[in-house]
Amino acid sequence: MSAEEVTQLVLRERQSRDRGWYEEMAACFADDCVVVMSWYTGSGAGFVRHTQQATAQRGDLAVHHLGPPAVRVHGDRALAELPLVIERRVDVDGVEADIASSCRSQYRAQRGADGVWRIVRITSVYEKDTITPALPNTRLNIDPQELAAYRPSYRCLAWDLNRRGFPVGDDHLGDDRPEAVQAQYREEMTWLRQARIPSA
């Protein structure tokens, strides 16, 4: 039952974000939650607030296409890894384009004293991304050297957000830096093993 509760928790957080249900999204996070993504690092409450503000400023709401999460539960803690593709319709100098960013989100969830599971951390691991014209027979005029300046695991995402005034750093987790990703997995499993196990 706990694995199903955690599965529904992470799916509800993503659905609420995509649909703009910000109160329901906020209810998914613990008070001390930390979120680490390409464009935002901070508290869960701040993530909800900045998501709402960024959506209003950019005028484009990202859509997340989700794969089945893998969930591990140990006592009052759980880890869920959710594969997803982030899709956004953008404007590139008057030409409509689609950015598709493949990544996986790692969720830490913890069951509170009230028996409710809440998210205590989200960490994104980026895999690859693409940018393509939205309409046939149109062409994107993008200098390849501009894109080459960014890391391959999230270059199109970073290029677009940076040019819009949403700075994206060069130090995020990505499959082009496998040692850092493996260290992240070890850290997650260590956290899970430190769970409180209720006495019989």
UniProtKB/TrEMBL annotation:
Residues 4-122 form the SnoaL-like domain. Pfam families: SnoaL_4. It comes from the Bacteria. InterPro entries: NTF2-like_dom_sf (IPR032710), SnoaL-like (IPR037401). This is SnoaL-like domain-containing protein. It comes from Streptomyces boncukensis.
